[in-house]
Specification:
Largest sheet: 10 strands, mixed
Radius of gyration: 20 Å
Structural class: alpha/beta
Helix content: 25-40%
Shape: globular
Bound molecules: 3-isopropylmalic acid, manganese (II) ion
């Protein structure tokens, strides 16, 4: 039987992106060698490196490379070097947000898990997280204030600027439906986050989510205001299963999710469109302050690859082997400095990639 050849477009980007992508490549090599995974990777520029080389953050070549692939593995973009540019040219907006919009990647999935055996990694007290954490944040990714009308007017006495939070019914419907479907495969509990005591867009959000809930009577729905949700997440994180939120609230809450499981360097993400095509990236940014030092945590990138195998290539076995190898590495206290409790004794980025690769190879 001829095995299907998969194509992955790899976009390392800026900051720690290229370093942690190297560790994901190691995992891909193990899958090729030990699991006869048939894959071809092609690398493309994005973000600041693309601005430096080609004058823009996202070239036609990169877009076409991604269009011709089965999925995109993304590092990170942005850094001080490009901060002086107008925001429409910056790596974040002209690179990453443009890609999200181009492929209609409306569903951002960020699983946030802390096993009961690794509670020490979390900054929360053991009695708060004794049951561990296992939640999934579903963030709307192509609408809301990130893409609403905005402007800056400075040629007057009292300059002003504005951004608009705008949601169409159809946008809320499709993300809510997906969240309910995901909840059905889990503990059947959704918390939908909004600010419906103040914002019109949130009132619409809440009403539409309520409508969709009728189609999923087996799922328990609760609404929570964003301010109180941030508090609940710290006080009682084990009570959450699926969290559903808008683009901006999801951006905020997902960093909080990362913090409670120990580090932003642990949180992977999948951004999917309706066809299941996706971009997979660590939820953290390019972290320019630690770039090039070989100390960044590559786990979020490796787990993003695992999500790519599961959601876009439909290879759940390979995906769970990677997840297990990561878990075993953490259990053996192979940790980068961001999560190691012993600052004298931590491993470098490349060493973590080697350890996880070895553990994975043993599973073949
Ligand atoms: C994220 C990041 C991005 C976002 C930035 C880099 C534009 O913070 O994926 O959470 O705000 O969506
Ligand atoms: Mn963010």
């Amino acid at each position: 039987m001829i095995k299907k050849l998969y194509k992955i477009a790899v976009l390392p980007g800026d900051g720690i992106g290229p370093e942690i992508i190297q560790e994901a490549y190691k995992i891909i090599e193990v899958l090729k060698k030990n699991f006869s995974f048939n894959v071809q990777t092609c690398e493309y520029d994005v973000g600041g490196v693309s601005i430096d080389k080609h004058g823009i953050a996202l070239t036609q070549e990169t877009i076409e490379g991604c269009e011709n692939a089965d999925a995109i593995l993304f590092g990170s973009v942005g850094g001080n070097k490009w901060d002086h540019l107008p925001e429409i040219e910056k790596p974040e907006k002209a690179g990453l947000l443009k890609l999200r919009k181009h492929f209609d990647l409306f569903a951002n999935i960020r699983p946030c898990k802390l096993s009961q055996h690794l509670l020490n990694i979390s900054p929360l007290k053991n009695n708060i997280i004794k049951k561990g954490i296992d939640l999934i944040c579903i963030r709307e990714l192509t609408g809301g204030i990130y893409f609403g009308e905005s402007n800056k007017v400075t040629n007057i006495d009292n300059p002003y600027a504005f951004d608009t939070e705008i949601y169409f019914q159809s946008e809320i419907k499709r993300i809510a439906k997906l969240a309910f479907k995901i909840a059905q495969s889990r503990k059947k509990k959704i918390v939908s986050i909004d600010k419906a005591n103040v914002l019109k867009s949130s009132i619409l959000w809440r009403n539409i989510v309520n409508e969709i809930a009728y189609e999923f009577p087996d799922v328990k729905l609760e609404h929570m205001y964003i301010d109180s949700a941030t508090m609940e997440l710290i006080k009682n994180p084990s009570s959450f299963d699926v969290i559903l939120c808008s683009n901006l609230f999801g951006d905020i809450i997902s960093d909080e999710c990362a913090a409670i499981i120990g580090s932003i360097g642990l949180l992977p993400s999948a951004s999917l469109n309706e066809k299941g095509f996706g971009l997979y990236e660590p939820a953290g940014g390019s972290a320019p302050n630690i770039a090039g030092k070989n100390i960044a945590n590559p786990i979020a990138q490796i787990l993003s690859l695992s999500m790519l195998l599961k959601y876009s290539l439909h290879l759940p076995f390979l995906s769970s082997c990677i997840d297990e190898a990561v878990h075993e590495a953490l259990m053996k206290k192979y940790m980068t400095i961001d999560i190691s409790k012993n600052p004298q004794n931590f491993l470098k980025t490349n060493q973590i990639g080697d350890k996880i690769s070895d553990l994975l190879a043993k599973k073949a």
